[in-house]
Design a protein that fits this description.
126 residues; five-stranded mixed beta sheet; 5 strands; globular; disordered C terminus
Length: 126
Amino acid sequence: MSIKVAITAQNRKSISSHAGACRNYHIYTIDGNGNYKKELVELAKNESLMFTFHEDTSENPKNYIFDMNFLLTQGIGQGGANKLAAQNVTALVIKETDPDIAIQKFIDKTLVFFEPENHHHKGHHH
């Protein structure tokens, strides 16, 4: 049973933030022994998560990332994380910048992750 992990890498190298707008991902397929294979996937503009979540008007929008088990990124909002969770994708916010180090820590279960960002500004009363 393999696990598929997508890591946002807009510049095709380091881990990027703003998962919604990201179109370049490192995709890691990890087998039961902790070995992985890695590929770089480039999505079209209308395949980004932001497009799927905000502009795709079809009844059941599909997205490449929905086939993943995990999404690792330096930044995603709570809303996007919730929408991914509804597709059985667990979004994890990490501070790591090197995808290979992040995936090794993920496999070793030593990866530190943070809650998705909550975009509701605190302290403002309407």
